Structure formats: structure tokens, C-alpha cells
From TrEMBL:
<feature type="compositionally biased region" description="Basic and acidic residues">
    <location>
        <begin position="27"/>
        <end position="37"/>
    </location>
</feature>
<dbReference type="GO" id="GO:0005634">
    <property type="term" value="C:nucleus"/>
</dbReference>
<feature type="region of interest" description="Disordered">
    <location>
        <begin position="26"/>
        <end position="61"/>
    </location>
</feature>
<keyword id="KW-0408">Iron</keyword>
<protein>
    <submittedName>
        <fullName>2-oxoglutarate (2OG) and Fe(II)-dependent oxygenase superfamily protein</fullName>
    </submittedName>
</protein>
<dbReference type="Pfam" id="PF14226">
    <property type="entry name" value="DIOX_N"/>
</dbReference>
<dbReference type="InterPro" id="IPR044861">
    <property type="entry name" value="IPNS-like_FE2OG_OXY"/>
</dbReference>
<feature type="signal peptide">
    <location>
        <begin position="1"/>
        <end position="17"/>
    </location>
</feature>
<dbReference type="Pfam" id="PF03171">
    <property type="entry name" value="2OG-FeII_Oxy"/>
</dbReference>
<dbReference type="InterPro" id="IPR050295">
    <property type="entry name" value="Plant_2OG-oxidoreductases"/>
</dbReference>
<dbReference type="GO" id="GO:0046872">
    <property type="term" value="F:metal ion binding"/>
</dbReference>
<keyword id="KW-0732">Signal</keyword>
<dbReference type="InterPro" id="IPR026992">
    <property type="entry name" value="DIOX_N"/>
</dbReference>
<keyword id="KW-0479">Metal-binding</keyword>
<dbReference type="InterPro" id="IPR005123">
    <property type="entry name" value="Oxoglu/Fe-dep_dioxygenase_dom"/>
</dbReference>
<comment type="function">
    <text>Involved in the regulation of shoot development and salicylic acid (SA) homeostasis.</text>
</comment>
<dbReference type="GO" id="GO:0016706">
    <property type="term" value="F:2-oxoglutarate-dependent dioxygenase activity"/>
</dbReference>
Length: 440
């Protein structure tokens, strides 16, 4: 069975500058390619997510032409929120996956056990209780839960984390309102600069995706926070304040969980300001991706995000009550049952490398549905992009049967991988693995 596996979600994704510029221009043109007045451009989107609205003439033409299931590329680059608001009833061809890659086909590796289970299921991820982690009498037990989760699933959910509902709920609310802005306002943030502190776009990597994904996104670089915030969107009016508070809370939570993960790995705590934690405290990379997955007319034919792993140490995901995240476990795609008030956390490629393979960066994807939009905020945390990372010396011991399993890697190596033929045949982690030699 074939499967389209996307490259790891990078801290800064590659994009095609020309297509970004075309997409921004398309947002201000009508169906005939003519420039729209500001008011006409604003009419292209509804004012509230999930509510019906009076269609403009352009939208009505889009709906009436849906029988061909094909659309102008510029129209598609306006994003799926635009398509969903237009009232389409059939999925455009560019979003239709090959049969073998559709979400209902859940089996990756043939196995009688997984086949008997049907290939797709549900999972309640292990729960890491930070209140217990902060209690010396419970810390060892919580560390064991964390360690097992990172080895077995590569995913867990964090509860009792101390991030107030006003902070997390406020972030989801302002994210929802951002995607309710008129298309012309959102399109201001389309950028040809892949390192811009803010970028708005659609799909996974719209410049390269052979099949587009049912997702719009807003990427916000979060470090150094004081320098990048003035370049974030000014609308909604409270976005900067709300997102700044959430970014600070996410980083603090990451530092606490990362410290626990290192302890669970058996890596001794360094002197104050030393080791990986010291580096992260001094200068870390942090990016937020705000995702919008509108209701989809034919969700069985497409995905919100393709199978991918995350490039980094840990990713923290804040999501609303609508399910959609799936993780690959034992050859099956499992839908994550969200725990209210929790964060979903997953191991990234960097942490698998640093742990010398003890912790697993696993493939995950996002399904969409036909009735309810979904909002999520993914926070990617790691070391600076230029920093090379390899297995921790404490976890490499040839005599004890723990040889070095990965080559050092940095962001330049990742970009070279994307541009190489390897990117078509193996995951990034597979490209960094060292051959293991066994004695006869």
C-alpha cells in the first residue's frame, strides 16, 4: 500500500516565492482576473465561521461550476476557508487524494492483528499530570509515565499544567476570529519571505503539494518575542496581546516538560545555565502555527494535514473540542480522544535524535469533517536553527550495547534533505540514521 508521507514539519517551512505572490494577488481579483475594489474583496468571505451568508456573484459562479470539480489555481490559493464559505458541495480535484492515501484506508504495515481491527481506531493518550510532577512524592511515578509515553507512543497529554483557561481559551478565540476576517485582510500576511515573522497560507506546503490539504494557517515566529510581535497581524485588535501571553505560557510549559524528559532519560541535571536546558533558556526557537480546518464537503477524500513528523524537540498542541488529530501506532491510524483542558504533546525529530532513538517521533495527520470547523494551535519548540544536534553523550555506550544511532543534524542538513532524492523515498529521520554493525 502506498502512502504519501510529507517531510517533517520544519520550524520554517520551504515555500515558493512566486506562488505566494500569485496567491496574494489572487485574493484581490475577481473570477475574471480583474482587480477588486476593497469592498468587493471583503465580500468574498462570510463574517462568521459556520454560518450561512449571502453569496456574491463570484461565489455563486464558483458553486455553479463545481460540477467540473476543477478550479483556477489562483482561486484555490485563496484557501479552503474561502472555498468552504462559498458553499461548494464537491471537493475540487486538487484536494482529492489517491485511493490508497485516503483517510479511510488506515493500514500502513500489513499485520493480521491490525487488519483484524480494521486499520483505524481511537486512542486515549497517556496523561502526564504536572501537579504530580511538581510533588516530590509523586515525581518519580509521573516521570515513569512520561518515559513510557515517549517510548511507546511519542505522544501524551498534559493536564494540571497551570495555563489558565483565559490564556488558552483566549488564544483559540482570537485564532477563530482571525480566520473570520475578510480574505483581503488575511491575505496581507502572505509572504515570499520564508523567514518572515508572520506568514498566512493554505495547504501543507502549497508550493510543492501535488494534492492540496484542507487547511489554512497563520505562522507566527515567537523568538525573540519583543522583536517579532510588532510585525504580527494587527487584526483582530487583541491578537498581539493574546498571542504574546499564550506564547510565553507555552514556552514556560515546554521548559518544564523538557526538563522532566531529560530527567526521565537519565541525563544528569547540569549546573545552572548549562546543558541543553541552559541553551534553551538563553536562546530557543519557537514558532506557533495557527490552523483552521473548515467543514469539508467530502472529508473522506482528503486530509487536513498529510502524514508527517515534527522537526524539533517537542510540539505542544492546543485544540478546540472538535477531534481530528490522528497518530500512527502499531500500523494503525488512531484518532486522539481530546482531554478537556489538556495540551497534546509530541516528540519531534530532534528529541528522537538527542535520545539516541529511545523516544519516538511518530507520523501523525489530521482528518476533517463535513459539519464542524476545527481550530488548533501548534507550538514548535527546539534549539536555534543553526545549532547542530546529535545523540546525548550520556546515552551512547558501545560497550553497553548502546551505539550511536544518528548523525548530527542542523537546519541546513534538513533543507538539503528536502532538495534531495532522499526526500521522496524516506523520512528525514531515516536519512539521519547510522547503520548498526553487529558482531558475528
Amino acid at each position: 500500500m502506498s502512502l504519501v508521507v510529507a517531510a517533517p514539519m520544519a520550524i520554517v517551512e520551504l515555500a515558493n516565492a512566486q506562488l505566494q505572490q500569485q496567491a496574494a494577488a489572487a485574493a484581490k481579483k475577481d473570477g475574471g482576473g480583474h482587480e477588486l475594489e476593497d469592498g468587493a474583496a471583503d465580500a468574498d468571505t462570510s463574517t462568521t465561521m459556520g454560518m450561512s451568508c449571502k453569496r456574491s456573484e463570484q461565489q455563486q459562479q464558483l458553486v455553479e461550476s463545481s460540477s467540473s470539480y476543477d478550479y483556477d489555481y489562483g482561486a484555490l490559493m485563496k484557501g479552503v476557508r474561502h472555498l468552504s464559505d462559498s458553499g461548494i458541495t464537491r471537493l475540487p480535484d486538487r484536494y482529492v487524494l489517491p485511493v490508497s492515501d485516503r483517510p479511510g484506508v488506515g493500514l500502513i504495515a500489513a499485520s493480521s492483528t491490525a487488519a483484524a481491527a480494521g486499520g483505524v481506531g481511537r486512542v486515549k493518550l497517556p496523561v502526564v499530570d504536572l501537579a504530580g510532577l511538581r510533588d516530590p512524592s509523586q515525581r518519580a511515578a509521573v516521570l515513569a509515565t512520561l518515559d513510557d509515553a515517549c517510548r511507546e507512543y511519542g505522544f501524551f497529554q498534559v493536564v494540571n499544567h497551570g495555563v489558565g483557561s483565559d490564556v488558552s481559551g483566549g488564544m483559540l478565540d482570537v485564532a477563530r476570529r482571525f480566520f473570520e476576517l475578510p480574505l483581503a485582510e488575511r491575505a496581507r500576511h502572505m509572504s515570499a519571505d520564508v523567514r518572515a515573522p508572520v506568514r498566512y497560507g493554505t495547504s501543507f506546503n502549497q508550493a510543492k503539494d501535488a494534492v492540496l490539504c484542507w487547511r489554512d494557517f497563520l505562522k507566527l515566529v515567537c523568538q525573540p518575542l519583543r522583536e517579532v510581535v510588532p510585525r504580527w497581524p494587527q487584526q483582530p485588535a487583541d491578537l498581539r496581546d493574546v498571542a504574546t501571553g499564550y506564547a510565553a505560557a507555552s514556552h514556560a510549559l515546554f521548559m518544564e516538560v523538557m526538563e522532566a524528559a531529560l530527567e526521565a532519560l537519565g541525563i544528569p541535571a547540569p549546573a545552572a545555565g548549562g546543558g541543553v536546558l541552559g541553551e534553551l533558556a538563553a536562546l530557543a526557537s519557537h514558532m506557533m502555527t495557527v490552523n483552521c480546518y473548515p467543514a469539508c464537503p467530502q472529508p473522506e477524500l482528503t486530509l487536513g494535514m498529510p502524514p508527517h513528523s515534527d522537526y524539533g524537540l517537542l510540539t505542544f498542541v492546543l485544540q478546540d473540542h472538535v477531534e481530528g488529530l490522528q497518530v500512527l501506532h502499531a500500523g494503525r491510524w488512531l484518532t486522539v480522544d481530546p482531554v478537556p483542558g489538556s495540551f497534546v504533546v509530541n516528540v519531534g525529530d530532534h528529541l528522537e535524535i538527542y535520545s539516541n532513538g529511545r523516544y519516538k517521533s511518530v507520523l501523525h495527520r489530521v482528518r476533517v469533517n463535513s459539519t464542524r470547523p476545527r481550530i488548533s494551535v501548534a507550538s514548535f519548540h527546539s534549539l536555534p536553527a543553526e545549532r547542530a544536534i546529535g545523540p546525548a553523550p550520556e546515552l551512547v555506550d558501545d560497550e553497553a550495547g548502546n551505539p550511536r544511532r544518528y548523525m548530527d543534524t542542523d537546519f541546513a542538513t534538513f533543507l538539503a534533505y528536502l532538495a534531495s532524492a532522499d526526500g521522496k523515498n524516506k523520512t528525514f529521520l531515516q536519512s539521519r540514521k547510522l547503520p548498526l554493525h553487529t558482531s558475528s
